Amino acid sequence: MRNSRDRILTTHVGSLPRPDDMIELNRAYAAGEAHDEAALRTRRAAAVAEVVRQQVAAGIDIPNDGEFGKATEHRINFGAWWSYIYPRWGGLRAGGDMMRAQPRRSEPGKVVLTSFSDRRDRQMFAAAYADPESGVSTAPRGAGGGMVLPVCVAPITYTGQEIIAADIAHARAALDAAGVSEGFITAIAPGSCGRIPNEYYASEEALMFACAEAMRVEYQAIINAGFVLQLDDPALATSWDMINPEPSVTDYRAFAELRVAALNHALRGLPADRIRYHLCWGSWHGPHVTDIPMRDLVDIVLKVNAQGISFEAGNVRHEHEWKVWRDVKLPDGKLLIPGVVSHATNVIEHPQLVADRLVRFANVAGRENVLASTDCGLGGRVHPDIAWAKLRTLAEGAALASKQLFG
């Protein structure tokens, strides 16, 4: 991975707005309607080439494929980063709507995830979430508006070799055409893709490590193709809000430790300097007051076998947590990739604010160890015009910070 040796480099978390015609092709495909498979592949390749070109034009140094291989069926979709993997696995059968699943309760020493509708924030702000005019949004749009998850009923296996090969081919052609030397491709971490009902494995630990073995195939393919692998693991932090009643920090840390152990099992032998790890608190357009503090997880996060750590730092619920890095020594060779513009608001950050945020991190971690990024993916979260404006202001702010830090 490149570091900010001469200036603050720019990147982002992954998802970017999909073209409307590609969304419609994806929708028809998912619905089982008549569609032209060759046309979908051709359109996706062209769209990836264009989105890489747009990133470079916006000032992004380390771009990606926009996650266009992770199909969305609507402009507003919060779940493609997660749901994309299940068609690439064997051992599953169709599941149910997790928004409306029966709530489940935890107890001391036993952390159990509840349904999405039973999240503590959703309970505290039930009227806002129920009001379609409030501007609050959480669930991806789709059939019934819910999150439909599969059920594990047999050994989990990776069956998506042809799909990831196509993703890699599209990204490589696009980066080469744009003259870009380094790009990244995202893949989900075991702790996030393992949040499925389990009717096969004897324990949660066995399920996590099975997910890890399956995902290792995708991780290896991305790295072997010369890309930086970004591991998406929002569940490490967001699962805290899905546990009722609120667990002890000790119990939750054990929950997180298992997921990091499974992830590192999947990463065994893979080069850490080709890997970056992303966690976040979801930060949909809605109230968050039950997020677990970064301080309670940071030492566990640093155990991940990844050089780069990507996290929310522009979100107003977490911006203050830059101070954590004054007290936690960044291990040698690690890079911080803080989000300095946020997907959680339509307001476009001022470049000077972006610069100020970056300078704070540079002062505590070293300027060469900081890359500028977004809090999370912009695709499916904000209007396309806003998404691209945020990437431009990210680049402008990084340039201001570089002038201050490098002269």
What does this structure look like?
The protein contains 14 helices and eight strands. The two termini are 24 Å apart. The strands form two sheets. Strands 3-4-5-6-7-8 form a six-stranded parallel sheet. The protein has a single domain, classed as TIM Barrel (Alpha-Beta Barrel), CATH 3.20.20.210. The protein has helices at 20-30, 37-58, 80-83, 120-124, 126-130, 161-178, 190-193, 204-224, 235-238, 249-266, 298-301, 324-327, 351-365, 384-406; strands at residues 89-97, 148-158, 184-188, 228-232, 275-278, 308-312, 335-341, 373-374. With 407 residues, the protein is α/β, with parallel strands linked by helices.
Helix-strand category: alpha/beta
Q: What is the number of E strands? A: 8
| Main β-sheet, spatial strand arrangement | 3-4-5-6-7-8
- Following the backbone from N to C, one meets helices and strands in this order, namely HHHEHHEHEHHEHHEHEHEHEH
| β-sheet strand percentage | 5-15%
Shape estimate: globular
Low-confidence segments = 140-145
Helix content: 25-40%
Q: Return the average pLDDT rounded to an integer.
A: 92
The main β sheet shows up as:
6 strands, parallel
**Number of helices in the DSSP assignment:** 14
Give a brief description:
The chain is built from 14 helices and eight strands. The strands form two sheets. Strands 3-4-5-6-7-8 form a six-stranded parallel beta sheet.
